[in-house]
Here is the input.
Amino acid sequence: MPDVFADLVGQDEAVDTLRRAAAAASAVLRAAAVPSTTDAAGDGLDALAEESDGGQPTAAVDAGAGMTHAWIFTGPPGSGRSVAARAFAAALQCAYGTGCGECPGCHTTMTGTHADVRMVVPEGLSIGVNEMRALVLRAASTPSGGRWQVVVIEDADRLTEAAGNALLKAIEEPPPRTVFLLCAPSTHPDDISVTIRSRCRVVPLAQPAPEAVAEVLVRRDGVAPDVARWAAAAAQGHVGRARRLARDPEARKRREAVLAVPRRLTGVGAAFDAASALIEAAEAEAEASVAEADAAERAALETALGAGGTGRGAAGAMRGAAGQLKDLEKRQRSRATRAQRDALDRALVDLAGFYRDALTMALRAPVAPVHTDTAALAGAGAQKWDAEGALRRLEAVLECRAAIEANVKPRIAVEAMMLSLWKG
Ligand SMILES: [Zn+2]
Here is the structure.
């Protein structure tokens, strides 16, 4: 059975760091468990940090150096930030302190059922302050399993300022057995505040090489080697995306539709049509991805509200029901918006890959194309546009991504991009 780090593709250095930290964390627990050293070592990381300041060459010094309360995992989308955070959480809860992948601590963390591990996955465009306060409060409790309280915050770049401040307070004065694992694209101040950054240890993840991604698709997911190689290249280092392309025919169809765009741009009208098609495809994909969760949530809430409808509290419950349904609808709208943006962004990344192929071909650069199946079309583009024209088009796609990121209405940004792609 592979251990919990097996799915971290092409991240040897980060895995090494995390293994050492998990071992150090285990040493902290062992030190706390020995009665004679309990007073000296305390029950957490701070005591060890103080001890290591004393410069004593003991196991505790290693522990203090290897482990800390707050971590940030950075890397491009798909590089495995949340995979790394979850694996590390499992290693912290592992009965052997290694992330063996087999003990109950590892197993329940990896399946998302460990009582002391909370994964925060923002469903809207940001994580609000109330959500964060509740989380910080719960994280301060004593771990029921006797090891660590672990809070994993995916997309920590989506914290609101107020939520960030609430989190900062917890990181500045962490409860002895609480560990925060944040995931963000980078440590740029746009992604994570400087003050939070200064309190965390950073684990940078690299964009995994296509060969490494293909290898894991074959080994873990049973994908045929040639399909795995194609999907890994087409996904441009995004492991989850490569997996979807390899296994989901709908995802392949959507990608093909996106890559048909350059061929379809024959005039102004066609450019606007292509913009509409791209937006609508993203909406449809997003709708499909959230519809099931929406329906399940609504049914669960209706059941909860309808239960015991004749008791004394029923009238009050009914008054509260409208508000709760409204809250749910608001959360679901927010999640739908985010799903649309994510779908559109994936399409833009595919499109950027096409123009990047045209550019590298125009420059005769000795690199493999991102999209092997449209390489001939990209080659034709390279001849027609030359390197400069290909570069202008690539920039138009990247500008569109940046504009949407900066809250320009997606339709407006995409229409502007399509016109630029047509005119060149
Ligand atoms: Zn284990």
Notes: The radius of gyration is 25 Å. The longest strand covers residues 178-184. The chain has a mean pLDDT of 86.
